[in-house]
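Case 662 in the screening queue. Each case pairs one protein sequence with one candidate compound; here the compound is magnesium ion. For every case the pipeline is the same: read the inputs, emit a complex structure as tokens, and attach any notable structural observations.

Predict complex for case 662.
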Amino acid sequence: MPEPAKISVLLKEGRRFKPLPEFSRRAHVNSRAALERLRRQAARDPEGFWAAQARSLEWIKPWRKTLDWRPPRARWFLGGRLNVSANCLDRHLAGPLRQKAALIWEGEPGEVRTFTYQQLHGEVCRFANVLKSLGVRRGDRVAIYMPMIPEAAVAMLACARIGAPHSVVFAGFSAEALRDRINDAAAKLVVTADGGWRRGNVVRLKDAVDAAVAQAPTIEHVVVVKRAGCEVAWQPGRDVWWQEAMAVASAACPASPLDSEHPLFILYTSGSTGKPKGVLHTQAGYLLQARLTMEWVFDLKPEDLFWCTADVGWVTGHSYVVYGPLAAGATILMYEGAPLHPGPDRFWSMIERHKVTIFYTAPTAIRAFMRLGPEPARRHDLSCLRLLGTVGEPINPEAWLWYHKVIGNGRCPIVDTWWQTETGAIMIAPVPGATPTKPGSATLPLPGIEADVVDRDGRPVPAGTGGFLVVKRPWPSMLRGIYGDPSRYAAQYFSQVSSPGSCARGERRTPYYFTGDGARRDEDGYFWMLGRIDDVLNVAGHRLSTMEIESALVSHPSVAEAAVVGRPDEVLGQAVTAFVTPRVGVQACENLKDDLRQHVARAIGAIAKPADIRFTEALPKTRSGKIMRRLLRELAAGGSVRGDVTTLEDLSVLARLQSDEE
Ligand code: ATP
Ligand code: MG
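Case 662 output:
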């Protein structure tokens, strides 16, 4: 692990955006003072603060003890009982939300389906009964491998209703990846579809499930939604059509009273830094923060239409497509297909047609749109939007400004939300009616979240200095473990950095949660993510952040996207190698390389000037859209790629980069 306290900080971003008065006036948290009050309350009495917030959930039995923290093990709201699906559905049925749209779905071919809270409740109860009739009991694991169709949300909520933890596996993964995840969790049943639509083609999911289940001995049944209408192989006795089973299932299914710490789901991380980890989340704490952040960060109002573009196969799709918005009584928009299908303006056309008010997407998507220029968005009236969000990677200031200007027309606050599969919910983000924003900064931790930037000994580093991003106290939606691997959990997250102190003097050192990310804080305390600690470069004794050099490159008008890695160099230690995707219509040539080198030198300093620049049509990304620098590092070093590539989005990108090399 490099010593991060010496990460040189080069990027200077001076632009500021204050909350607009007309936004603040109506916001849940409407001023800096109001937000500071919440922060102070939380700091003074963290457990009391979380206990007060938790009263907003609907409990079947109240908890006895708010927190039991025996590092690295945390348990929240001990003795309490509730049901997540009842919090997302049943509690809304007594009042005006009963007939409100819970879910509006658009298929890639263009069909639209709408479910009210009442209808969604009926579907969930029916599917919970189907699961029970197929032998699924409390505690049994259910794998979900589905396209982005309403049935995916129904399946998740039905599992939650009966206390069967789900493991959603992104439907873009191969049969092998699915098999490994089924076997890791020893799942009893898989829910899938015949196929789903993507870029005008049917992705045949049932075929992949058949191949996976042939090597997954714990699976007893496969439930198949008829979605694409393609032919599928059928194993009588094992396979069940969703539609047939639902037709005969009862719509009455009481929500099971579950312990606060009963497992809710297992979800594998993206694999940006290595082999994916099966992150385990439990009921109450997870639900609490997923719901609260809908109010704090997305400032949800009853009339909002909330669109989070993430797939349910990622944590963002768990917390901000399903659990958070439904617990908060929102109307969500869900979309099945590819963002640029059938044309580059699909998203903007959907925003205009459905009148989306809050739009939450990933920097990778924003950079893809930026690459195409503003025209596709300008074809549509996006004045319905009032708030924009991003998650998944650091957003380069240039992409932030583009999003703000072209999509938000300068009116919509942007919430850059930092969090992880492990944190369950947003941790560091603006509260849009209260926090002035700076492009490229996720701003400040939310109330109750004690995040900091520290050195190896756990001491906070001075403003402007890079360090490890840690969380000092447990929080309700934190992961409870890595499924089946308690020692990896302790080693990965709780053994790298502790509170400062000397054991020799008998001072107690408590472990901090280690995020794996590098960050710095500025003079206002704002957090700036510097990228993964594993990706930090070491050039002539200087530690450089990937994020800063990439952002300098992206601020050049010819560049759409960039990834920076270090290549071994005898003199410098590492030499900066940049992989650059030019904007559409830009001629990639030697002159542009020189120009980019000068541009980086001017923007952040000569030390960061790339030694090599390689143009590429596309960068290797995870299925969730994150740049996989570890693969580029292997390529830049001149070797072949050895690391885990199972979560890579498009193997051909890597193959092309490799053949360029030869
Ligand atoms: P793995 O842990 O397997 O390498 P992963 O970390 O990519 O996969 P996720 O949990 O989906 O899997 O991603 C969380 C990470 O994404 C964070 O640790 C951080 O590096 C990055 N990230 C997410 N949101 C932001 C953000 N707003 N700004 C900067 N980085 C972000
Ligand atoms: Mg991670």
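Case 662 observations:
- The pocket of adenosine-5'-triphosphate (ligand 1) is lined by residues 269-273, 276-277, 314-315, 391-394, 416-418, 420-421, 442, 515-517, 529, 532, 624, 626 (CB under 6 Å).
- The domain at 536-662 is CATH 3.30.300.30 (GMP Synthetase; Chain A, domain 3).
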